[in-house]
Amino acid sequence: MRFRLTPRETSFYDMFAASADNIVTGSKLLMELLGADSATRIEIAERMRAAEHAGDDATHAIFHQLNSSFITPFDREDIYNLASCLDDIMDYMEEAVDLVVLYQVDELPKGVEQQIEVLARAAVLTAEAMPNLRTMSNLTEYWIEINRLENQADQVHRKLLAHLFNGKYDAMDVLKLKQIVDVLEEAADAFEHVANTVETIAVKES
Fold first, then answer.
1. What are the residues whose beta carbons fall under 8 Å from the beta carbon of 133, sequence distance 6 or more?
2. What is the b/e burial string over 62-73, where b = at least 16 CB atoms within 10 angstroms of the residue's CB?
3. pLDDT digit string (tens) for 82-111?
4. Which residues form the signal peptide (predicted)?
5. Which of 13, 26, 70, 195 can pair with 93 through a Cys bridge, CB separation 3.0 to 4.6 Å?
């Protein structure tokens, strides 16, 4: 850890932690979506939309703090990238839930639950990692595991696509379901982007 002579704005750590905790909330709503009836899905979508708005507020707060801080805990570009990537995760999760409701999907294809389980695990790991930015400790295992989970998500996604294109689904249903599983895959990619940004920060600060 480099020795610094100047004080740093430390509120960023709390804001990153709050943003990550909100993502855990979003992942739990995704889990609730599995097996929910249409009426419950509408209610879940409303709660997810509120969580996404809370995520936007957290991101804007970080950007505001960044623009008003003379000294930051690490590079401004990395702070911006980390906040943006965390925000992307919530955006993708909210989009997936919204699509399920808008497309009036009766039953999600087998394998989506595996996608969501990967996202839920990644959300918990990310929330646990954010407080460690203060000391840059115990982060290596985090980004290694997130990369492993993203590889797992890729495999699940490919299997889902093969399932959707096996000829058993109506063409219009394929289009709808593919868009949903693609968005969930983008959420998994966004978790990896967060982990890669954290790794970049840790390397710079070491």
1. 13, 16, 73, 139, 198, 201
2. beebbeeeeeeb
3. 999 999 999 999 999 999 999 999 889 999
4. none
5. 26
